[in-house]
Write a structure and sequence with these properties.
62 residues, mainly beta, N-terminal domain of TfIIb, 1 helix
Length: 62
């Protein structure tokens, strides 16, 4: 996935306003908040930052 670094600095999770990070293997932008756990799809190089389009990720290791 090719997401511009400057774009990543200014966009945030629409639900909780936490920063997002790239998950290349899943072609998603994932919320960095451990309580939110949303992953937003990237379609044709465009992040879809709609809560209704996001999926909830499984909790990570403790």
């Amino acid at each position: 996935m090719d997401i511009d670094a400057a774009l990543l600095e200014v966009i945030a999770c629409p639900r909780c306003r936490s920063p997002l990070q790239v998950d290349d293997s899943a072609a998603e932008l994932v919320c960095t908040s451990s309580s939110c756990r949303l992953a937003y799809p990237v379609r044709d190089g465009i992040p879809v930052l709609l809560v209704d389009e996001a999926r909830t990720r499984a909790p990570g290791p403790a």
